[in-house]
């Protein structure tokens, strides 16, 4: 993605990347080890994406969009469901039937969530904020993505202020863990 996009372009690009990762997983034979690698990448990208939304998108929606609190709360419930699925996927082998079942359910959940965001939440935010504020939110999303965790952490709060304090440290720990996991394979 080119730097400098507004929050809507940033999140839409994330959505397309997630769709692509799901497609790549589906193209692999059912028990192929590449599915595990792709599922790990999907997990990292999905966690980064949800954390950036929780840090920057949903607070803006709450503040600027009519009935924004209800919209943001619904999105957080969606995130929690996806996080539970990611946790269930984390230690499953590709030859476990639940691996494929979880991927299919996760794809459905994420696709539904992305549609709702793109057709309802993001247009409402675009109507409520001037372009320069949307660009600033895009900058914040890009910056948050760099430090966001790459693994699901169900005990990590998803609302400020604790969220803003704990996410960068958790992201650093996850990146070290990812690096160690990659070098030991």
Summarize the structure.
This protein is mainly alpha-helical and 185 residues long.
Task: Explain how this protein is built.
The protein has helices spanning 7-27, 34-64, 68-90, 97-128, 131-147, 162-183. The protein has 185 residues and is mainly alpha-helical. The longest helix has 32 residues, at 97-128.
Secondary structure tally, helices = 6
* Element-level helix/strand string: HHHHHH
Largest sheet: none
Question: Cα-atom Rg, whole angstroms?
Answer: 16 Å
Keyphrases for this structure?
mainly alpha, 79% helix, 6 helices, elongated, 185 residues
Give the helix/strand layout.
Elements: H1 7-27, H2 34-64, H3 68-90, H4 97-128, H5 131-147, H6 162-183
Helix pairs in contact: 1-2, 1-4, 1-5, 2-3, 2-4, 2-5, 3-4
């Amino acid at each position: 993605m080119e730097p400098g996009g507004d929050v809507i372009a940033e999140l839409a690009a994330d959505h397309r990347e997630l769709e692509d990762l799901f497609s790549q997983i589906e193209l692999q034979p059912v028990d192929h080890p590449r599915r595990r690698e792709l599922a790990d990448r999907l997990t990292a990208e999905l966690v980064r994406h949800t954390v950036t939304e929780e840090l920057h998108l949903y607070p803006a929606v709450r503040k600027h969009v009519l009935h924004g609190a209800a919209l943001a709360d619904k999105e957080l419930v969606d995130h929690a469901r996806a996080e539970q699925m990611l946790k269930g996927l984390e230690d499953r082998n590709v030859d476990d039937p639940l691996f494929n079942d979880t991927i299919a359910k996760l794809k459905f959940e994420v696709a539904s969530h992305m549609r709702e965001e793109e057709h309802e939440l993001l247009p409402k935010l675009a109507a409520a904020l001037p372009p320069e504020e949307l660009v600033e939110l895009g900058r914040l999303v890009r910056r948050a993505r760099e430090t966001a965790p790459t693994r699901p952490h169900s005990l990590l709060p998803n609302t400020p202020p604790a969220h803003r304090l704990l996410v960068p440290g958790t992201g650093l720990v996850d990146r070290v863990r990812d690096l160690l996991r990659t070098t030991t394979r």
